[in-house]
């Protein structure tokens, strides 16, 4: 058998291809950022064709750097930014509109309309999610209602919907020439349309949204052969054998396979996933219920999730919108130029507040300002905001699960930041642990693909690959921790009730 697995990680800011060996070590990487399109306040789009072009290029980069060909690749795994909705014409392969990204809040009026009949909890028992702009469902509705001709074409069966896993899979397996239109249970669980018990699309919910079932991909497990790459791909004939939404993939890559295990990923947003095993747990504290993974015919694993919309993207905002840093890494140097936050608290409710608050009416606020506060304090407040938001989510997990997490496994781009992770340990009061392979998202997709084709034998085989790289131990005294948390919670209250009909 070939010696490597290739994972495609189609993320919010970039697309990557990463080649892994049997030990789960990175052999080579290709990466390209794509344009973030902000047509109006609150709107966020990507160009699906740019994403597909970049995917092809990064595959070439990753193979080229390691001098590999398709013959060296045993299988391909796909992982992706979740919820982001692409709708395209099945006969031409052309998207009818840009991808509407998970952070986009334009569909609030559609949410309100659907909620009129029973509040945002209307479908929650069945799908595990509150009605919110975050999930794919209302984004599809927006496209059907706002793109000329889309509704008619969809009713005629000519349009397909997919999250970006499906978009990549369909194109990779041939597109208009017989592309496979499928997704996995984890991605399907983020649409609002999948019943958590049956793991199938629910016709009543689809009728309530007015979305034709013919647009939707087939729901498959996270680890099985979906198809092979088509003849135009560098990977032609290679099986595509794993799909997981990126946060579930990171959980899998962290080897958090069993109930009670968790991870927190620090990327564009932060996402804490807590494995609840074969049990569907409904949160009383603002967490989502989602699918963790499903390997072929084996039982499904569910999870609780704390999704935070803005964390790493706040650092990008300091770089791109304020210009006070020139790279994300520089935020650490700037934050270290001061001893503390100088009294400033930054609540980045740029897309409203996600877990555990779910307040679409919130908008960002920087509070506690005096003439003393300088850009170092603002950088510090931004990093602290990432950790405070995570603490809010950990509190919710502990309350729902009736436990106290004793340590937090972390990964993602922002875990390169030592100051952030020390503050995270301090404000949580438990150790924070980072594995050697911080690219756990791609690794999880590689694992799912490798299991399906026998490259790895079983979960024990994978768990052996997990290795600790570094650990941050709490050192803040309790009184200081309590003071900071109290001020943070006060700052959160200042962001609420901001959006009304007159304000974007
Ligand atoms: N040293 C750093 N300190 C803080 N944030 C960082 C640092 N390096 C990268 N980031 C943030 O991490 C994010 C990128 O992480 P990544 O895991 O690649 O994200 P994604 O998968 O969401 O595209 C960016 O939002 C960036 O601002
Ligand atoms: O692409 P990321 O890492 O920002 O992840 C996005 C999440 O999947 C959104 O739910």
Automatic annotation (TrEMBL):
One of its GO terms (biological process) is glycerol catabolic process. It is an enzyme of class 2 (transferase). Transmembrane segments: none annotated. Pfam families: FGGY_C, FGGY_N. Pathway: Polyol metabolism; glycerol degradation via glycerol kinase pathway; sn-glycerol 3-phosphate from glycerol: step 1/1. Inhibited by fructose 1,6-bisphosphate (FBP). The keyword Transferase applies. GO terms for molecular function: ATP binding; glycerol kinase activity. It comes from the Bacteria. Its EC number is 2.7.1.30. ATP binds at residues 12-14, 268, 312, 316, 413. It catalyses: glycerol + ATP = sn-glycerol 3-phosphate + ADP + H(+). CDD domains: ASKHA_NBD_FGGY_GK. Keywords: ATP-binding, Glycerol metabolism, Kinase, Nucleotide-binding, Transferase. NCBIfam families: glycerol_kin, PRK00047.1. Key enzyme in the regulation of glycerol uptake and metabolism. Catalyzes the phosphorylation of glycerol to yield sn-glycerol 3-phosphate. This is Glycerol kinase. It comes from Agromyces tardus.
